[in-house]
Amino acid sequence: MACYRCQARLLIAPEVRSRAGGGSYSRLMGGRGRPGLNLGGLLAAVENAPPVAAADVVGELLAETLDAFEVAFLIADFGGDAVIRLSHTRRLATSVLGREIAERVPLGGSAHGRALASQAVSVEEEAGGWRVLAPVTNRGEAIGILELLLDDEPDEQCAADVALAAHALAYIVIANRRFTDLFEWGQRSVPLSLAAEIQHRLLPAAYTCEAAQFALAAWLEPAGEIAGDTFDFSLERDTLHLSLTDAMGHSLEAAILATVLVGALRNGRRAGLEFAEQAGRASAGLAEHFHGSEYVTGQLARIDLRTGRAEVVNAGHPPPLRLRDGRVSHIDLEPDLPFGWGEHSYRVQPLPLVPGDRVVFLTDGLVERNGPDIDIQALVAQGAEMHPREAVQHLIRAVVKGTKGHLKDDATVMCLDWHGGSRRLRTSDSGADN
């Protein structure tokens, strides 16, 4: 993928300079051979700027102190196959969100895609200068890319400062997106229906999570029109909670059905109910509001991070897959009634895990309605060396390609890599499994 230079330097909102404390950011970073990035000063400048200018502050700092003739933040879009370069201009409005401009940059086979997949800083020489790409990441969640164009080859200190700025930018974006639609708008390479808008609010804020004992990622397709699928996870001190659900029907009715179930499951989990009781209460709540006429299939899982003991509730859902020692097989689970069919006592079944296992939870959009002729088990095996973040998109893209982009149903997948081991802290510089 080619990445195109803007005619101007970084396009900065005019209020950024004054609110960030003056026209020069050089006091936050010295010249080369200087101490590293002053995070305290950077965060103070971000705090003084409006939320929509949070990424601009980081960009202006790097542009001035590293003599970059272009700096940009590119946010990962909902489709998973592109990043979006966000910028701001005082010229005539060119988008639906004020004076904001979004340029779509495809990831496939590109330097941006490689940097995002490898989660490492990339430095490449090109005509007229050097391009530096740093992944903007938090706990494995690929938020986007920080891009700089330099006249001179960056030295080790410069690359380290860019990497640190990108890591700080991940936290800055997470904190400031609560106050503005800018980042959400930038991720929307396709319009969302009302049902999709509702259903996206049900999904966790991050689609990827890494900890010492595991790496987890999930994905839902299509991004614009949704037919009832959801996924969720929550990490406590010693417990990982997972869910994958599929509400019957399509459009707004399915979104409402999913909203009630996900809300009930979260309510029970946060109230500290026993595992089986969480499922039973959620099913009863769904039946109470829909009188047993609508239902949702799904699986709930709970993993004790101290012991590795895992349990699952199977509410009439397709069985998950396990990749172990290079072989893919179905995990046999006894089916219980779907959620919403009245009072039911759900069985809590064991989910045996050993370090090195990969478990893939999926909806019937991958195995029945969209992909009856697609060998999902072979695709899981092919992606064995991929990070879960890449593996889930690998599966989804295969289904989308197999249907020529015309999905009959949502396709949702959740991938869990179990590293196991004794309780310990994850180190962000060495990965989750070290």
Describe the SSE topology.
Layout: H1 15-19, H2 39-48, H3 54-65, E1 68-76, E2 82-88, E3 100-106, H4 111-118, E4 122-126, E5 129-138, E6 141-150, H5 156-176, H6 182-186, H7 194-200, E7 208-210, E8 214-221, E9 229-235, E10 239-247, H8 251-270, H9 275-290, E11 296-304, E12 310-315, E13 321-324, E14 327-330, E15 349-350, E16 358-362, H10 364-367, H11 376-382, H12 388-402, E17 411-418
Antiparallel strand pairs: 1-2, 1-6, 2-3, 4-5, 5-6, 7-8, 8-17, 9-10, 10-11, 11-12, 12-15, 13-14, 13-16, 16-17
Task: Characterise this structure.
By secondary structure, the chain is an alpha+beta fold. Helices cover 30% and strands 26% of the residues. The chain has a 6-stranded antiparallel β-sheet with strand order 3-2-1-6-5-4, sandwiched between helices. A 6-stranded antiparallel β-sheet has the order 7-8-17-16-13-14. The chain starts with 14 loop residues before the first helix and ends in a 16-residue tail after the last strand. 45% of the residues are buried.
